Amino acid sequence: MSTVAGPTEGPYSVQDAQPPSGPRCQATVANVAIVEGFGYWSGKDVRVEFHPAEKDTGYIFVREDLKRPLHIPANVNFRVEMPRRTTLARDGVQVEMVEHVLAALNGLGITNCEIRVNQSEMPGCDGSSKAFVDAIDKVGICPQDAWEPRLIVREPIRVGDDDQWIEVQPSLDGVTSFRYRLDYTQSSLAIGRQTVEFPISPDVFRNEIACCRTFMLQQEAEWLLSQGLGTRVKPTDVLVFDDEGPKENTLLFHDECARHKVLDMVGDFALAGCFLVGKVVAHRSGHRLNAELIRELLKEEEIEILCRKTA
Ligand SMILES: [Zn+2]
Fold this sequence. Notes:
Mean pLDDT: 89
Strand content: 25-35%
Number of strands: 22
Structural class: alpha+beta
Order of helices and strands: EEEEEEEEEHEHEEEEEEHEHEEHEEHE
Oligomer: single chain
Radius of gyration: 19 Å
Number of helices: 6
Bound molecules: zinc ion
């Protein structure tokens, strides 16, 4: 990690939390925001509380249902591999399907938050980040008196193979953007090919990405049910595609599936523990490759900790 002087002194304002370029000030939730629901996989009721946290805390999950509450930092070092979701573990205790919760925090420009939960699996809600964003927006976001640590990509880095890959390139204009190419032409013509690209800012995340829901194919849903998973989930809770399109549901955007993949990337990149300045381009990648890229990035690039000039 390197420590360099910030370009300006305070005072910090909410504008500082808005990209497109330059360092952003740290921010936390202005008050406690609460979301309740049930986990898609486990079917268990769960309550998530977003609590304000001191500057330089980052995101920390707290399993409050345990005799001794356990803190699990949302960092790639605590990530464990599980199918189709992002899971963190410490001392044998897990928090599962954290990506849509983290996408809400990262997408809204929040740096520090204690996420208190009473179950291992986060609520699925409608399969998007909307419930978390709405709850946080209701209590507000509070800027903090420090710059956000950031990682500026200087050299392209790519992981994956010819079929599925993700790379990050330097951003010449200082804007962080995510591009995703989805290709389901082999398995579902109803989903087909979709490509989206967004510069990420809190407003873009709120208006274009946060409400985009997760999706699966009819045969995948049937397999999960046969395994006793997802039994509480109704077709209206998640996009289940058959040959015609989503069952008992309507798309919010024609490219909602690809947008959801961007949502997942915003959530997974929270595990870098800093704000990324770069252009992410992904082709049919998922949670595993997102994490692999973050690990490579942290190996290759330095996180800048910006200080106030007076420090
Ligand atoms: Zn997702």
